[in-house]
Specification:
The structure holds 2 protein chains of 2 kinds. By secondary structure, chain A is mostly beta strands. In chain A, about 0% of the residues lie in helices and about 50% in strands. In chain B, strands 2, 4, 5, 6, 9, 10 and 11 form a 7-stranded mixed beta sheet that branches. Classes of the chains: A mainly beta, B mainly beta.
């Protein structure tokens, strides 16, 4: 959904555990979704994407799940490492608005060694 | 291959002064975005270009903000005059087209005093 509020949701996990970051999107016409990782002082970095004709896509240590029925997206990170600590954003591509890319609020992931 | 390059990285100006940001997208990328990111929030779209044409500038405060993308490559974003509330990180991103992942630059952190 749209970015709102000043306080990021936070997720704290132990190193080696799996992490699941959730995102609710707003527009049922969105057909393309992207997860970004943003470290302090840097721009968002592309992690993985998924199109609406899929419900799951896997990358290296990451999996994205898409549930169009409830407009929900999740990012799963396997064997979370300290280097995974960052803010994670989901973004939806509004195809019915000419491909406008809208970001969600973001979740801050903290990995404890 | 170089990623999206932005300059300057940091800028401090007094209110009512003008400021300009520059972006060099990834070679061959037709779509260019300018986003604004406030602390603790996701990026918010200001303007999107397809080649040299601004196809979505609905979120750009046109009374003080302007942008251009001459020849469909580099882009500049200008604020004149700057206000205290303009303090934020200004991100530039590019993608092959509007249906593929966008890659971000490091951003320009603007502080208006």
């Amino acid at each position: 959904g749209e970015s709102v509020g000043l306080h990021l949701p936070t997720l704290s996990v132990q190193e080696g555990d799996n992490s699941i970051i959730n995102c609710a999107y707003s527009n049922s016409a969105s057909d393309y979704f992207i997860w970004y990782k943003q470290e302090s002082g840097k721009g968002p970095q592309f992690i993985i994407d998924i199109r609406s004709n899929m419900d799951k896509r896997q990358g290296q240590r990451v999996t994205v799940l898409l549930n169009k029925t409830v407009k929900h997206l999740s990012l799963q990170i396997a064997a979370t490492q300290p280097g995974d600590s960052a803010v994670y954003f989901c973004a939806e591509n509004l195809h019915n608005q000419g491909g406008k890319l809208i970001f969600g609020q973001g979740t801050e992931l903290s990995v404890k060694p | 291959e170089a990623g999206v390059v932005q300059s300057p990285r940091y800028k401090i100006i007094e209110k009512k002064q003008p400021v300009a940001f520059w972006c060099n997208p990834i070679s061959g990328h037709n779509t260019l975005y300018w986003y604004l990111q406030n602390l603790g929030q996701g990026p918010e779209l200001l303007i999107r270009y397809e080649n040299e044409e601004a196809v979505d500038d609905s979120q750009l405060p046109k009374d003080r903000f302007s942008a251009e993308r001459l020849k469909g490559v580099d882009s500049t974003l200008k604020i004149q005059p700057a206000e205290l509330g303009d303090s934020a990180v200004y991100l530039c991103a590019s993608s092959l087209d509007m249906n593929t992942e966008a890659f971000f630059g490091q951003g320009t952190r603007l502080t208006v005093v």
